[in-house]
Amino acid sequence: PRPLPCRKSYRTIEVERKLKCCEHISAGTFPRRCGGDRCEARQSLCSSLRTLYLLFPMVQIASSIERRKLGTVGRLCILRCSSRGSAVLLGVIGLCMTALVGNSFTTYKLSPSTPSSEQLRSASMPSQQQSTETATEMAAANKSSIPHIIYFTYKTNILKTREPLEIYYNIMNTTQKYLNTWNNDDSARVEFLDNHACRNAIIRAEPKLLVHFNNETTGAYKADICRAAALYNTGGYYFDVDIRVVNPVRLEPGISFSSVQEEIRKENIEKSFNLFQAFLASAPKHSVMRETMRYMLAYYEGKHKLHGEMGVSTTGDGYKAAAAYPNEIGKIRIFQELKNVQEKEEYYANLPAQHGIGCCCQHIVHDPKERKVYFYSRIVGVGVSCMTHEQYGKYMEMTVKRRWMRGAKANHTGPNFFLSGEDQMK
């Protein structure tokens, strides 16, 4: 058959189905049509597939060689090159070689990309040295599959402006606790995503979401898009600017994704699985982040219905979609949200309460098996969900004024609109 371009045949042919192998060069048993004594002269090409690509542009698999199970030296793939109509054996590719121990052997599968020099070197090194380096690489990989990058997002860079001051202090508290936890990692760093940085992250991850980010008027939804894009690009740890760290999360080796399951009512427990957005940790290019952005885009295009806030809904749906493929999603850890912890004394009776007024001052993130609290979902003094007493007084005053104005406009009366004690409580 007509020989294919070298790069194309390398990308499209799988080892187990297509390659036909000869015995080792030292055995000297190559068929004459495979090149015979020429193989030995060309064995230097085993160390560099790239060199083979550059020197000989037309390569095809030698189709008439019977595949044999070898003894202790492994397998070598024989390529035949065609030049001006004559087939000449050019060399032996080291990537296809497998080291055998006894009667067992491992088959290397060709990847879509050009192999690195480390891969080529490992294919030809002695088995004892290779196993030592493999153990070292595995130990490094198990150290952490999630890079120690801390992400925050806000419309402006609070680390530079230091405003709002309460949020700035909380960011510094979060940063300090985690950097202390990672004190042996010199690569740990903090990234703050303002609107400009968010746009750059979205362009890298999913450009179709950029127009929706620009048109979105709800700040929380803009943050949802931004964090998904940033975590997909580089991986790392994301924290809301108003989440309060009680104990830093220490993820086990090999964890590739972590978040918090939102507490839901019992009657809705089978209908939805929402992920709490205040804390997310992900490895780069993780399938959960990819699926999350896909659901976000579907929502903005009118093809997906939410079952809660945009961020928690799309991340939950993305998690469920990615979980259908266990090999892709990898090892995960999901914490639990617990609302109004002070009303549930059986959990953490000794946990100090936050002294604020609002719906969410006593919401926590915990691990029920470990019985350990990691976060308060809100700090006191930021937003109506958890206000100081002074803020609450001003908030109620403004609420009364707004209702009075609405009532005066509707009924052409003033104070008579807001006399009901029930309305006062509302």
Automatic annotation (TrEMBL):
> Where is there biased composition of kind Polar residues?
113-135
Q: Which InterPro entries match?
A: Glycosyltransferase_domain (IPR051706), GlycoTrfase_DXD_sugar-bd_CS (IPR007577), Nucleotide-diphossugar_trans (IPR029044)
Name any one GO molecular function.
mannosyltransferase activity
- TM spans (from-to): none
On the tree of life, the source organism's domain of life is: Eukaryota
**Alphabetical UniProt keywords:** Transferase
Coiled-coil blocks: none
Q: Name one GO biological process term.
A: mannosyl-inositol phosphorylceramide biosynthetic process
The region called Disordered is annotated at 113-137
Where is it found, in Gene Ontology cellular component terms? Answer: membrane
Name a Pfam family for this protein: Gly_transf_sug
Provide the protein name. Answer: Uncharacterized protein
Q: Which organism is it from?
A: Odontella aurita
